[in-house]
Design a protein that fits this description.
The complex is a heterodimer of chains A (392) and B (152).
Chain A (H helix, E strand, L loop, with lengths): L1 E6 L11 E7 L2 E8 L7 H4 L5 H9 L6 H16 L5 H29 L3 H22 L8 E2 L2 E2 L5 H27 L1 H7 L7 H6 L4 H5 L7 H4 L20 H25 L16 E9 L2 E9 L5 E7 L1 H13 L7 H7 L9 E6 L5 E5 H16 L2
Antiparallel strand pairs in A: 1-2, 1-9, 2-3, 4-5, 6-7, 7-8, 9-10
Helix pairs in contact in A: 2-3, 4-5, 4-11, 4-13, 5-6, 6-11
Chain B lengths: L2 H8 L6 E5 L2 E5 L5 H10 L3 E12 L2 E10 L3 E9 L4 E3 L9 H11 L2 E3 L26 H8 L4
Parallel strand pairs in B: 2-5, 6-7
Antiparallel strand pairs in B: 1-2, 3-4, 4-5
Classes of the chains: A alpha+beta (392), B alpha/beta (152).
């Protein structure tokens, strides 16, 4: 018997509500259809009535977690149209903040995925450690989210010497913690049972579906804008693109934990080699006619902004493509054939911020009887299922 | 990547290829050549993926830009279609990953992608009036609002 299960769009904890219509046979997913638009705010339309300076703030509010990645991408695209050369020091500060944001995002993700698995301790641990990096971002920018650091022509705040000292201390702490999480996530039997071989995305499929970011890298594809098209100071900093070949949720976890370590190395190098000098140049209000594209590796993957200007102080068209949209089809592919109990973990796997589904309704295909599940029920169902089956 | 490589691969005139800067190419082609051009770009070495599809309102035409990513460049293929009959061949059979981008443009610009099996609404809510394409310039915020019967 086939069941149809609408999943979402309401879930209280996170941004980006989304609806998935699952077709289920017994307990296996046989078909998935995504439906977006529940938070479509029409930002691209709004942008046509705002000037370039106002849009810096708007770009930062596209996403609460990758806010800097969007602001950076937008600043770069305007700078390209203005033909503005930004100071070297600003480039390094941009790199540092972008990597701090990546660490922050990956710890957040690790915690949420742990929670989906019913591993509350790891959730608490990861979020406690995320607090360390958030405090550092607060110290530099004055804000815990939406840092307001990037602007057209450079960055808004400098990182002075005393801050560097404090950052080094917390980086040491975070590195030790990342080592610990590697140990936990590669050894703990309940994590392995819930993630290894779950939500498979083969490299061929990832290529065809244009997957980006850690989702692609966990399928063995070394796709990273930082390496392919260096922006900010990435061209001058040595780092390696982390890939794993497992193609499953476990690989997505290992990619992110290793990226935390890699980001720490990038920040250390950037802090040490940061040149002295100004941090921003003045940008004019009017932007000459033209078109430009900017790409940035956000924590979740490639971020693309296209901007067409018409010579006034307002853009003609500003197109934004955030990484989650690029990974949605890959997610649908991963969900095919998975067990109902694995849906939360697999959805969490691409880091779309929709893991915490508020409610789920089971419709019996024959009688059309509707059974509505809360997100909690699915969560309980998933954890019970594993407990009964494996005694975890 | 160099201009001559793209020119040789796509077999088009050099003046249709605009080199904006290092790593940035814009290619103007006809609608009927779109599928062939995308297929040929995919065969080039260093091809990685199709980043996204952008649509924009350029007066009486709608311009659709395909951003094809390579490890060493980003090639943006431009095609135009008239607003009266906005039909463009779908490339979903070549690259399955573009399905959502085509649906997005179908929602917001009303472009029909010939050959895409599923163009159901992706972003706009259920019950959205037919013929209202919010990102077309004619549909100003006030016009959309009055059509929807709402106030600012």
């Amino acid at each position: 018997m086939t069941f149809e299960i609408p999943f979402g769009p309401q879930h209280p904890a996170l941004e980006e509500p989304i609806n998935f219509m699952f077709e289920i046979e017994e307990e296996r997913v046989v078909n998935v259809k995504p439906r977006l638009g529940y938070v479509h705010r029409g930002i691209e339309k709004i942008a046509e009535n705002r000037n370039y300076q106002q849009l810096v703030y708007l770009s930062e509010r596209i996403c609460g977690i990758c806010s800097f990645a969007h602001a950076l991408c937008y600043s770069q695209v305007v700078e390209e149209l203005l033909d503005l050369k930004i100071p070297e020091r600003a480039k390094f500060i941009r790199t540092i903040v972008a990597e701090m944001e990546r660490i922050q995002n990956h710890y957040l993700w690790l915690g949420l995925t742990a929670k989906e698995m019913g591993f509350e301790t790891l959730f608490m641990y990861a979020w406690r450690d995320r607090e360390t990096i958030i405090e550092m971002l607060d110290m530099i920018s004055g804000k815990r989210v939406n840092y307001g650091m990037s602007t057209i022509g450079g960055v808004r705040r400098d990182i002075p010497e005393p801050m560097i000292k404090r950052m080094e201390e917390s980086l040491n702490h975070l590195e030790a913690r990342a080592e610990y999480y590697t140990k936990v996530c590669t050894k703990d039997p309940s994590i392995l049972k819930r993630t290894v071989g779950i939500g498979i995305l083969r490299p061929r499929e990832a290529r065809a579906l244009c997957a980006v970011g850690p989702t692609a890298r966990a399928s063995g594809i070394p796709r990273d804008v930082r390496a392919d098209e260096p922006y900010a100071a990435y061209g001058e900093i040595p780092f390696k693109v982390v890939t794993y070949r497992g193609c499953d949720v476990a690989s997505r976890m290992y990619v992110r934990i290793d990226e935390i370590k890699e980001s720490i190395k990038i920040i250390r190098y950037a802090l040490k080699n940061m040149p002295e000098g100004p941090i921003r140049v003045k940008a004019p209000m009017r932007v000459p006619e033209g078109e430009a594209i900017s790409r940035v590796e956000a924590p979740r993957g490639e971020n693309l902004h296209f901007l067409k200007s018409n010579g006034t102080d307002k853009p003609e068209r500003w197109k934004i493509r955030a990484p989650t949209l690029a990974n949605l089809l890959s997610l649908c592919r991963m969900l095919m054939g998975v067990n109902l109990a694995d849906i939360p973990v697999v959805i969490a796997g691409i880091d779309p911020c929709i893991a915490c589904a508020e409610r789920i309704a089971l419709i019996d295909a024959k009688t059309k009887k509707l059974k509505v599940w809360e997100g909690k029920d699915l969560w309980r169902y998933a954890n019970e299922w594993y407990r009964k089956r494996y005694g975890l | 990547m160099r201009r001559s490589e793209i020119r040789k691969q796509l077999r088009i005139r050099a003046r249709n290829i605009i080199v904006q800067r290092d790593r940035r190419f814009f290619v103007n082609i006809e609608k009927k050549d779109l599928k062939r051009a995308i297929r040929r770009l995919m065969q080039m070495k260093n091809y990685t993926h199709l980043s996204t599809i952008t649509a924009l309102d350029v007066g009486s035409m709608i311009e659709v830009i395909y951003h094809v990513a390579f490890t060493d460049a980003l090639v943006s293929v431009k095609v135009q279609t008239s607003k009266d009959e906005p039909i463009i061949p779908s490339i979903v059979d070549l690259i399955p990953g573009v399905a959502l981008y085509e649906r997005e443009i179908h929602d917001l610009f009303g472009v029909e992608f010939e050959g895409n099996p599923d163009l159901s609404p992706l972003l706009l809510p259920d019950g959205w009036p037919e013929g209202v394409y919010p990102l077309r310039k004619w549909w100003s915020v006030d016009r959309v609002l009055s059509k929807l019967g709402g106030k600012r």
